[in-house]
Amino acid sequence: MKKLNYFLVKLMQFVVFAVFTFVVLTYFGALLLLPLDAVAILVKLMGVVGIHGMIGAVIAIPAVAYLCRMVYQTPGLWQMILDIGLDLVKTGKAKVDGFNAIADAVKG
Fold first, then answer.
1. Cβ atoms of residues 6 and 96 within 8 Å
2. Which helix (DSSP H) or strand (DSSP E) does residue 74 occupy?
3. Which domain covers residue 8, as residue numbers?
4. What is the pTM of this model?
């Protein structure tokens, strides 16, 4: 029975690790894909207005880069966004490490 309980604790530890890994990768992936999506939306919007896609991309990329620069230069905003992601990593590590004490107690 001890081996089964130990296996279940380790299985739950893996599930928690997988969930936190997915959340962290999703968070940082969204931070990378948000500007790319803004460029795609602006290019499509300019296509509706009548500006060709290539010319729209030439206009949209600097516009989105300027918006990203404004976010970066806003005091504390970029650091807060980064700290939220790093807090997710620290919380996930703490929760996964918390299972080790339970596994040791079950293993006996």
1. no
2. none
3. 2-102
4. 0.78
